[in-house]
Amino acid sequence: MRQFVKFFPLLAIVVISLAGTATVEAATGLNPPVKLVWHYYKVTNTCDDAETYIRYQVEKFYKNDSSIAPKLLRLLYSDCMVNGCDASVLLQGPNSERTAPQNRGLGGFVIIDKIKQVLESRCPGVVSCADILNLATRDAVHMAGAPSYPVFTGRRDGGRLNADAVDLPSPSISVDESLAYFKSKGLDVLDMTTLLGAHSMGKTHCSYIVDRLYNFKNTGKPDPTMNSTLVSQLRYLCPPRTQKGQTDPLVYLNPDSGSSNRFTSSYYSRVLSHNAVLKVDQELLNNDDSKEITQEFASGFEDFRKSFALSMSRMGSINVLTGTAGEIRRDCRVTNANYGA
């Protein structure tokens, strides 16, 4: 059983079997272990080189655009944390999950579609979009500096969700609200603090932080927990309001990594120095446990890397479909019932 202790020394590690069926043990409250398999497509002899094909395509995309790492991370999070890791977020259509306000700006769809086309030409009807999304994300963030953690496979694809089913929270919520949300998905405070570390790269819209810059809680002043230098820097990039027809500007979540999109622990150092861009990130200091984890990760990058590998595995196991549940989509953008329609 994974446990964290006061000051989180060395981050007690989840035991993961790398052969046969995987049983992922985790903190109390996690959904029962699911039956996913290490190298499922090789073990079942259905598409031996599936993971190699995926990695090759990710490498090609990453060489041209390193931003696919944060894009795929956000895409996977948006999928798994809503209805489980079933690739429902990839489905197109009016009022589909990906059209929800919380999913504005989602990217990474093109690479998933390309990988699916390649796999369908080699192993038609075999590799699920849910597995592709999990594997491609692992490979992309590894290229950005994250550990190459084990991804157990055998997921199947789910059906369509409406936009109003998306319950992703605002990036301005309190740490208590954030923790309650993660716990509702079977995750814990260590997972929450670790997975928020994905904000070490990527961008966000100014509209998500403009209140922190100009009128925090209707005070007419900036958020007092934000470093004044950062306030000035972000005000230069984010006007108090956008004019009609003007786009909502984007800013880096972690100016330290910026356009390099490198996976680092500098996110946690920025939280400690009150230089977090999003309120939800700065809120980590308002909970004793998340504060101690933040301090641990700021001083030990390897601790963060290890915990990231484990928390990504846990998130990737939320409410997965296996066996005969769901389907293996022929096109990640549509269910099989609508394929070719």
From TrEMBL:
It is found in: Vacuole. It catalyses: 2 a phenolic donor + H2O2 = 2 a phenolic radical donor + 2 H2O. Keywords: Calcium, Disulfide bond, Heme, Iron, Metal-binding, Oxidoreductase, Peroxidase, Secreted, Signal. Its main location: other. Binds 1 heme b (iron(II)-protoporphyrin IX) group per subunit. Binds 2 calcium ions per subunit. The record marks 74 as: Transition state stabilizer. The keyword Signal applies. It is an enzyme of class 1 (oxidoreductase). Heme b binds at residue 199. Ca(2+) 2 binds at residue 256. Its cofactor is heme b; Ca(2+). Substrate binds at residue 169. Belongs to the peroxidase family. Ascorbate peroxidase subfamily. This is peroxidase. It comes from Arabidopsis suecica (Swedish thale-cress). The lineage of its organism: Eukaryota, Viridiplantae, Streptophyta, Embryophyta, Tracheophyta.
